[in-house]
Amino acid sequence: MRKLAAGNWKMNGTRASLSEVEAINAALDDTDPAVVICPPASLLIPAYDIGGKIGIGAQDCHMASSGAHTGDISASQIADTGATYVIVGHSERRTDHGETNDMIKAKAQAAHEAGLMAIICIGETLTEREAGETLAVLGKQMSGSVPDGATSQNTVIAYEPVWAIGTGLVPTLDQIDEAHRFMRAELLATLDEDAQHISLLYGGSVKGSNADDIFSVPDVDGALVGGASLSAHDFVPIIKALSRA
Ligand code: PGA
Q: How far, in whole angstroms, is CA 90 from its chain's centroid?
């Protein structure tokens, strides 16, 4: 499994923030895992132009390759910026924009067709966890939003419990372990054996102080990081924890 530390800047950052991308780049060495930053669309090109070791990704794409979709960006347009990743199905997109599993699957397919690596997000709400529905929800989201053509070359899956995002709450290591084992088993049951190589990220309140513990869970191959990816000061310790894991 390829280790990956991915940063999701959400709707944060202006050109002044590119100095953080430069600082993260400067802190990387050959022993570090793959690192990708997903800035807002306005910063894709200047972030890519910084060069260095960091990969660049977008936070969403439309399922169509072009057309009358005001305000949207297509996977091929993202690829044209030099970016190589795109997040699809983040819970904030599912909630704020009513995105369904079908839409997310179509977006992941569009990403694949454009040659992008899709980071497909899944995760349960607190209500679903408390009702004992976590694995059922994850199973439904995986079968609904991971396309048949998913391989370790074009897909990463991020487990992000909705209640852990931006809250400082983190599941127990046993809860993360249970979710990631389940995801791996689902991939093996539904895709071919290459699926065992698809990287599985954990996301939700990852910080330098909890990263070593989270990365000690066997099927955790990296992290999708929100708030702590906005500065080199907070993100680099997470990257270094992943290289130690
Ligand atoms: P957080 O966000 O690290 O700020 O909790 C994670 C995410 O939404 O990907």
A: 8
Q: Coil, strand or helix: which one is 158?
A: strand
Q: Is 128 a catalytic residue?
A: no
Is the shortest distance between the CB of 7 and ligand 1 below 6 Å? no
Any atom of ligand 1 within 6 Å of the Cβ of 89:
no
pLDDT digits (tens, 9 = 90+) for 116-134: 999 999 999 999 999 999 9
| CATH number of the domain bearing residue 185 | 3.20.20.70
5-39, pLDDT tens digit by residue? 999 999 999 999 999 999 999 999 999 999 999 99
The tally of domains found in the chain comes to: 1
Strands 117-122 and 222-225: unpaired
Q: Quick one: 229 exposed, middle or buried, by C-beta within 10 A (0-12, 13-18, 19+)?
A: buried
- Ligand 1 atom nearest to CA at 91: 8
Compute the distance between CA of residue 120 and CA of residue 145 in angstroms, rounded to an integer: 8
Domain housing 108: 4-244
pTM value?
A: 0.97
In the residue annotation, 90 being an active-site residue is answered as yes
